[in-house]
Amino acid sequence: MSDSARMLSGVIQSLGRAKVLDGTAKTVSGWVAAVTRPTWIKNALSGSWLGHQLHPMLTDLPIGAWGAAVALDLTGGEESADAARRLVGLGILASAPTALSGASDWSSTRGADKRVGLVHALMNAVASVLQAGSWIARRSGHRRTGIALSALGLGLTLSSAYLGGHLSFVRGIGVNRTAFQSQARSWTDVAADGEILDGTLVRVIVNDVPVMLTRQDGRLHALSAVCTHAGGPLDQGTLDPDGCITCPWHGSRFRLEDGAVERGPASVPQPLWEINVEDERILLRAADSN
User: Fold this and answer.
1) Quick one: 140 and 192 in the same domain?
2) DSSP secondary structure letter of residue 184
3) Are 102 and 220 members of one domain?
4) Do 160 and 106 belong to one domain?
5) Strand ranges (E), the chain
6) How many structural domains does the chain have?
């Protein structure tokens, strides 16, 4: 590890240990939970309709707009002043849904990740304020002040993006926790048919992959037991009467029939397993769609 990487890692570790942030994080998480309580809002912000998290995709919009504005400021001269101001404004507009989707994802984190995520959010909030000040200054004819504020805001945004990258690529926040599970294509005997009672959740192992096996209204269902969102144990979750399973960690809901996401924060469907019953024994194998 290089000296610069070691220094940045130390800064992030210090932020993760800063328990002084916990009170603010708890308060803000409560606000986010209240806003995202309706299922349609949670799903929209989590990216459940998209197939992966929405926030990483949206971050390109404000960063791209503000970066282009600074590039025009440095190379375009007075004739590009109006275009640069419009780009600053577009970045401000795009930052609102970006922040909301990020807050929805962040609210499900814990401990050090939650503290680092809070700093990430606060830095982005300050950067947005600086960009708003830049737009006002440009609009009022104070272009040099606007350029300075934009450059400062972009620098802060990029610094915050480093923290976001750490959460995603080092800590694995938002990564599909079943992505690297082996795909067992051969039928595997896992249990006696009579052992799986209606309404029970049973954890079985197929080729080192934990699978949740259940029976509802007489019908057998099998999904990977590791929640795609954050690795929660679905076999310890709640079997809902509407044909869904709710993860015990963050409340993600999946349809038993096909593993589809009914409610975020999960954005990736739960891997489905095919079921065959022979001689009163239950056999499982990974579904072809996994």
Assistant:
1) no
2) -
3) no
4) yes
5) 188-192, 201-206, 209-216, 219-224, 238-240, 244-246, 253-255, 261-263, 273-278, 281-286
6) 2
User: From the DSSP assignment, how many helices (H) and strands (E) are in the chain?
Assistant: 7, 10
Strands 219-224 and 209-216: antiparallel
User: CA–CA separation, 61 vs 83, rounded Å?
Assistant: 16
Q: How many other CB atoms are found less than 10 A from the CB of residue 257?
A: 13
One domain, residues 205 and 158: no
pLDDT tens, 107-146?
999 999 999 999 999 999 999 999 999 999 999 999 999 9
Cα angle: 108, vertex 160, 263; to 5 degrees? 25
- d(CA 34, CA 51) in angstroms, rounded, equals 24
Q: In terms of domains, do 106 and 237 share one?
A: no
Do 236 and 166 lie in one domain? The reply is no
Q: What are residue 42's DSSP bridge partners?
A: none
Distance in angstroms (rounded) separating the CA atoms of residues 223 and 225: 6
Buried b (16+ CB within 10 A) or exposed e, 156-174: bbeebbebbebbbeebebb
What residue type is assigned to position 287 of the chain? Answer: A
Tokens of 239: 């079997």
pLDDT digits (tens, 9 = 90+) for 62-95: 999 999 999 999 998 899 999 999 999 999 999 9
- Two structure tokens written together for 275: 């079921």
pLDDT of 1 strictly over 80? no
Q: Are residues 210 and 132 in the same domain?
A: no
Q: Which domain holds residue 40?
A: 3-170
Cross-strand bridge partners of residue 233: 226
Between the CA of residue 25 and those of 10, 99, 113, 198, 255, what are the distances in Å?
21, 15, 11, 41, 31
- Residue 217: give its domain's CATH number: 2.102.10.10
What residues form DSSP beta bridges with 222?
A: 213
Tokens standing for residue 85: 């101001």
Q: The tokens 């932020």 sit on which residue?
A: 15
